[in-house]
Amino acid sequence: MLKDKIAVVTGASRGIGRTIALELASKGATVVASARNEELLNQLVAEISAAGGKALAVVGDVARTEDADRLIEAAMSAYGRVDILVNNAGITRDGLLLRMRDEDWDAVLDTNLKGAFVLTRAVAKVMTKQRSGRIINISSVVGEMGNAGQANYCASKAGLIGLTKSNARELSKRNITVNAITPGFISTEMTDELPEKVRAELLAQIPLARFGEAADIAHAVVFLAADQSSYITGQVLGINGGMYM
């Protein structure tokens, strides 16, 4: 399905990003995986290789422009092209608006939004020459509906939706599609540790009455990266169990 495609995935060391990287590799893509944790990245690459796939680890922090540029340079140096970029890297620094520190705002916006901008700018130079490419931004349902105590995170994820739409219009003439996915509550180590009362309150907001799985997001990424989605661009795909419609 994605044979011979080169896919760059950020935030790939754990959670949704790791599952995305594994799923892309299972469909034939060569994965250039990036994150700050070298040990976890190497474990991911080893797992992909053991399954017969191909992967390269590039340690870096997308909040640093030089690291983001170096990631695309590493992919080009190793493989000569980039077909897919998945902007997944994200952090949280939650806090009520009146108590939120400037540094917490800046850290979240730099990683979640500026990082995606810098990487998209770098990869767009490659993809425009190729006259093809897929850019997939992992936003969040709270970027659409808001969430108390997450002004910085919600702003960054809402900004990612705007960035998606703008870049889709700008890059479409070069056969580059740009789309966003907005996950809802996904089962992770964090949600597994929530008190039962909190879990019940969250589930009450979800019509399907369950949390999603990281694989739900990864499957959507594969679809948006594949040839079957070539007429889809500038779209926001909500995967949230009906929590936001």
Structure description:
With 245 residues, this protein is an alpha/beta fold. Helix 2 links the parallel strand 2 and strand 3. Helix 1 packs across helix 9, helix 3 runs parallel beside helix 4 and helix 4 packs parallel to helix 6.
The number of domains: 1
Q: Uncertain spans, ≥5 residues at pLDDT below 50?
A: none
Q: Which CATH-level-2 architecture? A: 3-Layer(aba) Sandwich
Radius of gyration: 17 Å
Any idea what the shape is?
A: globular
Tell me the span between the first and last alpha carbons: 30 Å
Strand content: 15-25%
Total number of helices: 9
Structural class: alpha/beta
Number of E-state strands: 7
Question: Biggest sheet: strands, sense, closure?
Answer: 7 strands, parallel
Report the CATH topology name: Rossmann fold
What is the name of the CATH class? Alpha Beta
Output the CATH homologous superfamily: NAD(P)-binding Rossmann-like Domain
Helix content bin: 40-55%
Order the strands across the largest sheet as they lie in space: 3-2-1-4-5-6-7
Order of helices and strands: EHEHEHEHEHHEHHHE
- Mean pLDDT comes to 96
